[in-house]
Specification:
The strands form 3 sheets. The protein has a 6-stranded mixed sheet with strand order 6-7-8-3-9-10, sandwiched between helices. A 4-stranded antiparallel sheet has the order 2-1-4-5, covered by helices on one side. The chain is elongated, with a radius of gyration of 24 Å. By secondary structure, it is of the alpha/beta class. The protein has 2 domains: about 230 residues, Rossmann fold (3-Layer(aba) Sandwich); about 80 residues, ACT domain (Alpha-Beta Plaits, 2-Layer Sandwich).
Length: about 325
C-alpha cells in the first residue's frame, strides 16, 4: 500500500541543467529538465540514444553534480548535500541496471546482502532481510546459486532484490529489460508492478523501449537532446494522436511498397466518432469509397483500446475525400509512406 501520510511528490526535478565544459567545447546534456513523480506511481522516462537519460540518472542519484536546478526527495534538495549527508540521501534510491552485475564469487543471497554489509547491518538482521527479499522476488529456492547458475531473468531478480535491500523510497530502473527476451521482460515488468503494489514504492523506469512504457507506466516523460519534449499521464497521451508521445508509444503500421494508396488511421481518441475497425471501413464505404483493412496494431493501454490501422483505398482519386472523412471523425489520417 502507498503511504499517503507524507505530502508532496516522491521525486521533484526542477529546472535541472547539466553542462559539460572543456577547453574549446560546451555540451548541454540536460536543459532545464522538470518532472514530478507522485508517491507510489510508476513513471517512465523515454528517449532515444543521446536524449540525456544517462546524465539524468547520475544527477538523480547524486553521482553527478548538476550545473543548476534541484532534485528534491522527501522534501530535501539532494543537489545541495555533500559528504555523509549526500551518502545518506543516496540510500533513498535503489538502482536496477540493464545488467545485474552480480559478483560471480558470491551466491544470490550474498549478492543481495552486499549493500547491507556495507551499511553495517548485523548478521542476524542481514540474513532475515535477505530471506525476505528472496521470497519477494520469487527466488527462495535459488539462495545458494551463483550467478552462472541463474538465467538472465533470475539474475535481474537478484539485482532488483539487492536494490531493495536497504528499503529505499524510490526504485530507479535504468533500461532494466533491454538485455532480456520478450517473455522474461514481461515477467520482470510484472514483478516491478507487484513490488509497487505490495510495498508502495515509487518506481522510475528509464528506457528506450516504448513497449515497457505501454505495459507498466502511470505517466511518462519524453526526453530529446537533453530537454523535456512532452510529458503526461499515459492514458491521456496515448489517446491523443497529435502528441509526440503518442507517436513514440504507438507504432506505425509499415505498408508494403506496392504502389497502392494506404492511410494510417489512429484508433482510440476520446472524441472520435468512430471507435471500431469495422466502423471505420463502413464509414468510408457508406460514402462510396472502396476501402479495406490492410493491417493493424491494436492493444489495450491504461484501460483504453488504442492503435493504428492501415486502410487501403482501391482508387487513388478518393484519397483526399477519404482523408477529409476520417479527419472529421477525429481519426487523424495520414498517407502512408
Amino acid at each position: 500500500m502507498v503511504d499517503h501520510s507524507q505530502t508532496g511528490p516522491a521525486l521533484a526535478v526542477r529546472d535541472l541543467t547539466k553542462v559539460f565544459e572543456t577547453p574549446g567545447s560546451r555540451v548541454t546534456a540536460l536543459d532545464a529538465v522538470s518532472l514530478s513523480v507522485p508517491r507510489g506511481e510508476i513513471h517512465g522516462i523515454v528517449g532515444r540514444s543521446g536524449a540525456g537519460k544517462s546524465t539524468l540518472i547520475r544527477c538523480l542519484t547524486g553521482l553527478e553534480l548538476p550545473t543548476s536546478g534541484e532534485v528534491v526527495v522527501a522534501g530535501e534538495d539532494i543537489t545541495r548535500l555533500r559528504g555523509a549527508e549526500l551518502r545518506a540521501a543516496r540510500r533513498r534510491f535503489g538502482v536496477v541496471y540493464q545488467h545485474a552485475n552480480l559478483l560471480d564469487s558470491r551466491t544470490a543471497a550474498d549478492n543481495i546482502a552486499l549493500p547491507l554489509e556495507v551499511a553495517g547491518w548485523d548478521r542476524g538482521d542481514r540474513d532475515a532481510r535477505v530471506a525476505e527479499l528472496l521470497d519477494l522476488v520469487g527466488l527462495s529456492d535459488r539462495a545458494q546459486s551463483h550467478p552462472g547458475q541463474l538465467s538472465g531473468g533470475q539474475q535481474q531478480r537478484v539485482g532488483i532484490a539487492r536494490a531493495l535491500a536497504a528499503r529505499p523510497e524510490i526504485l530507479l530502473c535504468d533500461e532494466p529489460t533491454s538485455a532480456l527476451d520478450a517473455a522474461t521482460t514481461g515477467s520482470i515488468l510484472a514483478l516491478l508492478r507487484e513490488l509497487r503494489d505490495r510495498l508502495g514504492i515509487t518506481v522510475v523506469i528509464i528506457t528506450h523501449e516504448p513497449s515497457v512504457v505501454r505495459e507498466i507506466c502511470d505517466a511518462v516523460t519524453l526526453l530529446g537532446d537533453g530537454a523535456v519534449l512532452e510529458q503526461g499521464r499515459l492514458g491521456e497521451v496515448i489517446a491523443d494522436p497529435s502528441t509526440r508521445l503518442h507517436r513514440e508509444l504507438i507504432p506505425l503500421v509499415e505498408p508494403e511498397s506496392d504502389g497502392l494508396v494506404r492511410l494510417q488511421v489512429a484508433l482510440g481518441h476520446p472524441d472520435a466518432t468512430v471507435g471500431s475497425i469495422d466502423g471505420i471501413i463502413a464509414l468510408l464505404r457508406h460514402e462510396g469509397i472502396e476501402a479495406d483493412l490492410a493491417a493493424a496494431t491494436v492493444e489495450t493501454i491504461a484501460g483504453r483500446r488504442v492503435g493504428r490501422l492501415l486502410v487501403e483505398l482501391a482508387d487513388a482519386s478518393t484519397t483526399e475525400r477519404a482523408r477529409d472523412l476520417l479527419d472529421q471523425a477525429r481519426l487523424h489520417p495520414e498517407v502512408a509512406a
